Amino acid sequence: MSEANLLFENRDGIAWLTLNRPKGMNAINGEIIELYEKYIPEIANNDEIRAVVITGTGAAFCAGADLKEVLASQKLPPGEKDFLDRLCENVFNPLRDFPKPVIAALNGITMAGGLETAMCADIVVAAESAVIGDAHANFGVYPGAGGAALLPRIIPHNVAKYLLFTGETLSAQEMKTYGFVNVVTNDDELQDKTQKLALKIASKSPIALRRMKEVANQALDKSRDAALEHEQVLLRKHMRSYDFTEGLTAFSEKRKPQFIGK
After folding, report:
1. pTM, rounded to two decimals
2. Residues 146 and 211 in one domain
3. Which PANTHER family match (predicted)?
């Protein structure tokens, strides 16, 4: 049996999901979607896993969707979810609202659906050699998973349109300048530095991180006052949690807190 197109590994409480179609530049196909559909709920429900890393093998993080499979799925009977329906509804939407921190580790070429995958992450770490762009325009394809809708919320509006209209790519360092990438690292240190970052995040209170992420994700769609009210509502809930008391107690006792996510 050939190796799966999406690999799962639990590394000390960090779930690593690795796109594994290096000869196809890790283009997203049906098998990858099926495995995402399997792993996403499993990871969400596993209290031992505190964070998720998505990366790729070979020269690409992900060059987008497998266009042959996208085209073939257009022939499905009416009412049946096609390739893009499943990718958006069962993969990207759950990843954007995932209850645990998600880190994208860009090991190489990141384009189209690969860019949209990275946009689902809370934090982006990139190898120096990584190049990042949209590329839909190069194939007469319209972005349907966040490329046009969400990219201008992350980087400057005119830079987003430059990437959308030209199909060009920018370097990891350029995308760090524009705020898309958080950390740029040497290629051979990408996994090690990403794991260290994930472990640092995993040491925090899971319930506090989940609530922070919920408020932060929704903040841009709300007025200032509504966002502040949302934050206050969750604060009051959080003050009744075990982790809140444990954090303050550990601080007063000058010891490391032991968070349990409740």
Report:
1. 0.91
2. no
3. ENOYL-COA HYDRATASE, MITOCHONDRIAL (PTHR11941:SF54), ENOYL-COA HYDRATASE-RELATED (PTHR11941)
